[in-house]
Design the sequence.
């Protein structure tokens, strides 16, 4: 079985887990893992199509380890295979969620998992259409076609372009809402959050003088803005570790409420966009 055929099998298995997740939400993690595996196999097949040596980690010693997702991006760019910023974002999202599910004991927020699944799903469909013959839908077993159609429709309905990148509309609104929370509280003491670009690790020797990008690659916070909820790059202002995984015993805060799927404020305006109430008054 070829890499491509294996990829189709993993994609079909992913859709099957999406269907099972309707009654057992824990199946979402297996849906994500199978989808990410499908992405990895299609990227390897594209590298193989370019040159048979490109799928190996060490092109001078082929036959041992193949490239993983982390190395696939620079390898594809070196081969001048079209990878745009949205593609790179989707691949990085796939890597992050695979690692999150595989290597960390974390509580997965159902809606967050689903939203990231949609982003990776859309990339897989787009990448297949750009680099392989036919449509990805041609390789979906009949019993899973409706699920795939529902996923595609959900992406078109729920995702927007915000600050030059595709993201779920609620991610963007959570980021805006997060700007209202400038401090966290630890044992009754207020501690200022660390904005993007002001993390202590930028001054570390291993950063070799690198400067932060204009926008956080995970949550899209601009320089000087607070990170969005759940951002993997937000620094804990107490222990200076990763806030999402640190063990500091923070007090209750409005910020933590933004992390869960209970936050559904569609009225949160984005970058000059009128709120739903404002738009209604204008249209009225």
Sequence:
């Amino acid at each position: 079985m070829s890499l491509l055929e294996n990829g189709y099998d993993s994609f079909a298995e992913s859709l099957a887990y999406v269907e099972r997740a309707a009654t057992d939400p824990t199946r979402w993690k297996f849906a994500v893992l199978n989808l990410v595996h499908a992405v990895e196999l299609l990227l390897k097949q594209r590298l193989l199509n370019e040159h048979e040596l490109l799928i190996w980690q060490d092109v001078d010693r082929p036959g041992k380890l193949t490239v993983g997702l982390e190395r696939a991006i620079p390898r594809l760019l070196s081969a001048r295979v079209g990878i745009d910023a949205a593609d790179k974002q989707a691949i990085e999202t796939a890597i992050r969620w695979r690692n999150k599910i595989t290597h960390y004991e974390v509580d997965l927020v159902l809606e967050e998992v689903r939203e990231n699944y949609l982003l990776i799903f859309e990339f897989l469909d787009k990448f297949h259409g750009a680099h392989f013959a036919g449509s990805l839908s041609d390789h979906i077993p009949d019993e899973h076609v409706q699920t795939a159609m529902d996923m595609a429709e959900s992406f078109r309905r729920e995702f927007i372009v915000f600050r030059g990148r595709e993201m779920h509309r609620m991610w963007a609104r959570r980021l805006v809402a997060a700007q209202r929370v400038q401090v966290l509280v630890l044992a009754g003491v207020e501690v200022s959050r660390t904005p993007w670009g002001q993390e202590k690790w930028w001054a570390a020797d291993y950063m070799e003088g690198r400067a932060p990008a204009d926008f956080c690659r995970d949550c899209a916070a601009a320089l000087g803005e607070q990170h969005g909820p759940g951002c993997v790059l937000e620094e804990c202002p107490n222990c200076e570790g990763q806030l999402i995984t640190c063990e500091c015993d923070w007090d209750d805060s409005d910020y933590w409420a933004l992390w869960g799927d209970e936050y559904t404020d569609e009225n949160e305006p984005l970058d000059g966009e009128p709120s739903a109430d404002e738009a209604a008054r204008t249209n009225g």
In short: The CA atoms of residues 69 and 252 lie 37 Å apart. The longest helix spans residues 28-50. The chain has a mean pLDDT of 82. The two ends are 60 Å apart (CA to CA).
